[in-house]
């Protein structure tokens, strides 16, 4: 999911922010390839640079209206219509992919339809959907993901141990 407005950080293409010498998108794609057979990226108008970068990784591009995270995500669900889906926002920094190992391992064993990853009590936007709706469960790992919404968040991600 990379179709936000980026108003707090002043850049709608947050997935192209460089952290530790890599764009957020590059970091996420390299981590996600281990877990999924295909990667889709949701983009909205004005995301030409993100589309170009996504094409360089051979990602499947879904153009959404940019009406908000949930609305765009539901539009993606209708287009993909294949579950389970591992949904990851395009503005999160994950230093260690082992967090995805742990999360997916727990989530796949869950009897719930939707399993959300929290980081230190905060929602990250990372979810495993076994269905597009239904029962849900939150799994919390301490400080595993940084949602990069501000320049301060980007600096915290840069300094993440």
Describe this entry's structure for a reader.
The mean pLDDT is 87. This protein is an alpha/beta fold. The strands form four sheets. A four-stranded mixed β-sheet has the order 5-8-7-9, covered by helices on one side. The protein has a single domain (14-158), classed as Spore Coat Polysaccharide Biosynthesis Protein SpsA, Chain A (Alpha-Beta Complex). It contains five helices and ten strands. It has helices at residues 24-32, 48-56, 69-80, 98-109, 151-158, and strands at 18-19, 22-23, 40-43, 60-63, 85-87, 92-93, 114-119, 122-129, 136-141, 146-147.
**CATH superfamily descriptor:** Spore Coat Polysaccharide Biosynthesis Protein SpsA, Chain A
How many separate domains? Answer: 1
Overall mean pLDDT: 87
Percent strand equals 15-25%
As a whole number of angstroms, the C-alpha radius of gyration is 15 Å
Strands across the major sheet, in which order?
5-8-7-9
The dominant shape is globular
CATH level-two architecture? Alpha-Beta Complex
User: What is the helix fraction of residues, given as a range?
Assistant: 25-40%
What does the largest sheet look like? 4 strands, mixed
Query: Structural class of the helix and strand makeup?
Result: alpha/beta
Element order: H for helix, E for strand = EEHEHEHEEHEEEEH
CATH topology tier name: Spore Coat Polysaccharide Biosynthesis Protein SpsA, Chain A
List how many beta strands DSSP finds: 10
Question: Which regions have little confidence, pLDDT < 50, spanning 5+ residues?
Answer: none
- Give the C-level CATH assignment: Alpha Beta
Number of helices: 5
